[in-house]
Structure formats: C-alpha cells, structure tokens
Design brief:
By secondary structure, the chain is of the alpha/beta class. The chain is 47% helix and 15% strand. The chain contains eight helices and seven strands. Helix 4 links the parallel strand 4 and strand 5. The chain is globular and about 50 Å long. It starts with 7 loop residues before the first strand and ends in a 7-residue tail after the last strand.
Length: 253
Amino acid sequence: MAQLTGLRILIVGGTSGIGLTSARRMLAEGAGAVTLAGRNAARGAAALDALDNRAASFVQGDAGKPGDADRIVAEAADRMGGIDVLLSCAGGDPMPRLLKDIPTAELMADVTNTLAPVITPCRAVYPVMATAGGGAILCVASDAGKIATPGEVAIGAAMGGIAMFCRAMAIEAKRQKIRVNCLTPSVVRDTPLYETLMANPFARKLFSKAESMADLGVVESEDLAALAVFLASPAASRITGQTISVTGGISAL
C-alpha cells in the first residue's frame, strides 16, 4: 500500500541530489502532487523531464530570500490546492575550509548561505499548514551540526542551527498538528555536492576518511529518500522534534 497516497508535497532544493531522488520516491509512494523548487529554471526543466510524471511541477526561486520563499510556498499551495509536506533541502554547496582560512568578512555569509535556504521555507509554509490543520516538515542538514570537525566550523554552525530550528519549531508547531524533523547525513555519494567535494583536495581528504568509517556502506540519496517517505507518512504521525543521523556507521549520535 502506498505510504503517501494523495499527499501534496513541496520539495525545496528538489532539482537534483537528495531532493530529486526523494521526489521520485514520493511519487512512487502515491503522492498526489509534487512541486519542486529551485533557483535554476534549466535544472528545474531537466528534473521534470527526469521524473516524467504529470503530478510534478516546478517553481523557480531562491529559498534563502524571504520574499522568494513566501512566493514559492504560495505558488505551490495554489497549484496543488495546499501543502501537506515540505521537504527543505536547499542548503547549497558548502565547501569545507579551516576557520583560519575563512576571511572574517566571509564567515557569516558561509553560515547564512547554508542555513537560510533550509529554514526560511519552513517559516513560509507554517501558516499554510496551520490553516489546513496540520502537516509534516522535513529539513536536511548534516552530521557536521553534531560533531566538531576541522574544516567544518562554519558549516557545522549552520547545520547545528538547522537542527535546533527544527527541534524548537516542533515544540511550537505541535499545537497546530505540524510535525518537524531533521535528517542529518554525513557523506552522500551520488549527489552533485559529493562530486564537488571530491574535486577539492582538502575536502576529499576529509570525506575519504569519513567514508572509510562507513562500515554499513556509504550513504546514497535513496537512503535519505526512504527515510523522508516514512517521516512524511501517517506511520510517523507521533514522531516530531527528532534529528536523525543517516551515516552508514560513520557516527552514532
């Protein structure tokens, strides 16, 4: 039996990687409609071609900008007749750098450019779900928000911010029957970000070491998609405020 029958799902950051894989899985699990949101129209069109499903559509916008986030949510809600699930995974392509190598003037931009695109859509969708009587919000961060790692000071600050945002929002939003959970992978092999990281000597050294600790196997986007489907489904109706690691054994937090 399909787990997501009839649900209307907005995936911010849905044109590639974890977002696109989740869209495919969610449609296969019976989602009534899926709207992808992203900054690049060409990538959006390519994603729709890859999905090849009439229930999928695309909205262009930069989720880190409040005005765009509000518009993305409004357009998606209008197009689908509401939003039951938000999967927010547009955290950009953060590149590890030692703190001493980050100019002071760039530090907050590194944090904000990772944090804002994930949490701003959550605020934008809040009244839509509250008015409808409930919903599920899923954010994707990373284990860098749990484990202090050299080269991930700025990234870790942003990821820790996403995780705490989800936990705190879960406590507030439960009154409106809205569940909020956070997924925190470490290395996700089959994504554009992985290719970018492995092309950088410092990041490759950092993440190759992490991969060697994944005794259960290095995580792929399908692993995150499967968890997202479960957390979005009625089977997870009592689960909120959780930050769930998906690392293949790299960490256990």
